[in-house]
Amino acid sequence: MNQAQMMVQVKKMQAEMTKAQEELASTVVAGSAGGGAVGVEMTCDYRVTAVKLAKEAVDPEDPETLEDLLVVAMNDAVQKAQEASAKRMSSVTGGLRIPGLT
Description:
Shape: rod-shaped
CATH architecture of the domain at 24-93: 2-Layer Sandwich
CATH superfamily of the domain at 24-93: Nucleoid-associated protein YbaB-like domain
Low-confidence stretches: none
């Protein structure tokens, strides 16, 4: 492969990477805890878009439980966002592990 062909391939991969990042920024995943009592929606670029609380999750006498449920729901959403991101980026990179992308 000559240098010109390589540059064409690099530009194509950059365009695909940009498209994938845009898709991930608009892809929403949901995390939950407490059997669905607490829910968190997040984009795959890690922006929280919604937090949903069931009435039974809110106990003024026990805020620590709600705090714990929020942590679990957030971590669940982050894990799902990471999985979606890794899957999408591996389709762009052909399975190559590129630091910072997967």
